[in-house]
Amino acid sequence: MSSGSYEIGMVGLGVMGRNLALNIADKGFPVAGYDTDQKQVEALNREAEGRPATGVITVDELVGLLRTPRAIIMLVPAGPPVDAVIDAFVPQLQPGDLLIDGGNSHFRETDGRIHRLEERHILYMGVGISGGERGARFGPSIMPGGPEAGYARVRPIFEAAAAKVDGEPCVAYLGPGSSGDYVKMVHNGIEYAMMQLIAESYDLMKRGLGLPHDRLQEIYDRWNSCDLGSFLIGITARIFAKKDEDTGRPLVDMIVDEAQQKGTGKWTVQDAMDLRVPVPAIGSAVHMRDLSDLRKERQEAAIALSGPDGRVSRDGAQFVDRMARAMRASMVIVYSQGMAQLAEASRLYGYDLRLEEVARIWSGGCIIRSGLLEPIRRAFHNRPDLKNLLLDPVLGEMVTSDQADLRAVVCAGAAAGIPTPGLAACLAYFDAYRSGWLPANLVQAQRDYFGAHRYRRLDREGLFHTEWE
Fold first, then answer.
1. Are 373 and 362 in contact (CB under 8 A)?
2. What fold is seen in the domain 439-469?
3. Which of 7, 118, 184, 461 is catalytic?
4. What stretch(es) of the chain map to CATH 3.40.50.720?
5. What is the pTM of this model?
6. Phi then psi dihedrals of residue 8, to 5 deg
């Protein structure tokens, strides 16, 4: 193809960038890719196999191949690498060109880049992309935010490349500024919490009930075929089916029990605290990843500290059924916390998010897709200003009817000495949220006692201080 005839550029031809480029090319949009690693460029050219995609090794080549006004997607690690790409390309760009960050950048950094590039009349978008390697290749969930004029330019490409559910693409313009990166950040926070809940259910069944891996695979497969069905439950079943080629043992048993993280879960919790939106299930997931990193200390503590023997003294089949219902309630509560955070962020940051659309574009392609997203979408369709999903009649009744099972599972874990911080955090959130009275009056009295912070009374207006001694 000739210079100036490629529809879009792709900077960063690693697994995600190369697969997304091939996905876009499959839909008939010519893609020019660039990477500083010549091997990645060669991989794109080799895998293109007649598709309208080509890889180049200089910034000038890529810019020259694109039709004007240009549109370029960056899929590079968050932080300094993004700024390095911007610095390399901006001198070659013209007013009206569009740069898109498709990585997991912090939303505050995206806001700064938008304002910086506005001075040069270059459009800049932060776009969340979820679905991993396979999603990028065959259809991710795409969460675009930034100038609406920028989205209008790439909308046909994004709609063609995105996952489809009932014929609808899992992409929609979310709002101005860093809204796309913010929605992706909270998506990842929800992902952290869901993975922690699944890990706790695994621990309760493996350690607590002593179930073998083939039985675990059957259970998660069954869960995936009911209203617990989700991408994460489905891959969990497949994980238990995988054998280690070297030892013949289940591969999951050969993996060190340390869970790594890239920071998006932590960012979710940090900003939730700034917004004063409680997200304890997400917070517990972040803390458990941190705790898993203390492996040597945990092994020392396992010898030094005693506790229950880790066995769940209950009927196994009945307990597994109860756990399925406990998981369903907890998953709804996790979504509730994430959506409440999005609602408050939308109000304070001016995103103007439509949560019904967020639930819709999460229903396919992304990591947290599940059958629960359809009733969540309906809840926001019926009440766009819904403050919390637990106040929706359908979802609220679902959690209410499952609460006895959630209580039983948390109690069983505590009695056995098996940690269930995610499940327990979901239960505590549910009980606190449904409490018309909380003991915060005592906390405020204590604050007034030692710091003269004053308090409000039930029977009159104003702020009061007491000399408690």
1. yes
2. 1.20.5
3. 184
4. 8-177
5. 0.95
6. -150, 150
